């Protein structure tokens, strides 16, 4: 189903047309072949082409077809709530501080890139707001602010009254506001990155599903049904849609289906009252309540729904109901758009840069934080391949992929996790601690 809803998204209706990227036909050569034109593949291709390397990017469908063209468009310069700078350092040791520095810069990296290439994607660097649904989570956010301050980075803590003023609803304990975050139209951004990469000299082939990657002398042969590319290096950025192309990558993440809705356009009064500063909001609940305005005056929200028949209709009903629960003054309204996409989740919610074989790498698992992080990681991978960044200065370890234990069963984990986390969120919010 995830593949069917691409055209149904709000972003498809608002994005400028995709640049021309004809399918691969015949054979070609490149220094680097990249498989998958999401933000990660596109950012790597753009930065590599800018450094003078020859790069060919092969995409099964079209640029932005995966999670990149379907997400909420939040530019979030942090990892998940449980992963602050100190947690990252504790988990990744020497790489941790470098990853933290990159994550901290990632909002600016996205908006600078958009400005530099004149990408028309309704970009708004209005800050990213994370309200706390409990006193415990408020303390976590305060500690987070201290963690960032110790690294010379300023994020704001808002009290309950200021949070209510900026959200326009709810009774949160306060919030963290990261001024370098914001929002974009993600499909327009993906298409803009593709246009910029083409202008820098990269070659992109859409409708070119890679079906095999074989060793060929010192390098690799990457095959589609209608052609092949010989390349010294290959990077897989296929994320959750990796399928059977590389089972080791596929079993290192859990695919999580996430739905999105966009309401009908709402009145000017509501636009003034709800999120008046247009900062997108994602709270600290386990099943996050996320909300933003679209460029055309719709509220966009979403999350997970239990799997079942006619999921799109159920998702639409479930998220309209959730929206009215948080904003009771909204009254009745319809969802004009419902779509979904798949997140590649890692158990520890950290991204991976893996060596599948010498000269064959994969980057995967930006979880629900991939807008800013993939863009920033793509720049770093390009720097590594171009020799600008030394291997020991890279922000992630470069190990073998590790399978999620009991992967087949773990795939069903998110569905089991949802009722439990909704219940815990509800208890914590009700008790307020
Ligand atoms: C509904 C939803 C909401 C989200 N909201 C946010 C958000 O607001 N903020 C945030 O930071 N993150 C968000 N995320 C996460 C974010 O979208 C992802 O982390 C990010 O887009 C991943 O980018 P990527 O380039 O790694 O992968 P993808 O964008 O998934 O790209 C992978 C590409 O590989 C292609 N591919 C697969 N197999 C092959 C093959 N064999 N040959 C050629 N091509 C192939 C696919 O067609 C696809 O285009 C959200 C995700 C979803 C699903």
Characteristic key phrases:
binds flavin-adenine dinucleotide; single chain; 13 helices; nine-stranded mixed sheet; FAD/NAD(P)-binding domain; 433 residues; alpha/beta; globular; 19 strands
The level of helicity is: 25-40%
Bound molecules: flavin-adenine dinucleotide
Strand content: 15-25%
Query: Could you list the spans in which at least 5 consecutive residues all have pLDDT below 50?
Result: none
How many domains in all? 1
Mean pLDDT: 94
N/C terminus separation: 39 Å
**Corresponding CATH architecture:** 3-Layer(bba) Sandwich
CATH superfamily: FAD/NAD(P)-binding domain
- Which topology does CATH recognise? FAD/NAD(P)-binding domain
CATH class: Alpha Beta
Computed over alpha carbons, the radius of gyration is 21 Å
* Count of helical stretches: 13
- Biggest sheet, in brief? 9 strands, mixed
Q: What's the shape?
A: globular
Number of strands: 19
The assigned structural class equals alpha/beta
Pfam families: DAO
Keywords: Oxidoreductase
InterPro entries: FAD-dep_OxRdtase, FAD/NAD-bd_sf
Protein name: Glycine/D-amino acid oxidase-like deaminating enzyme
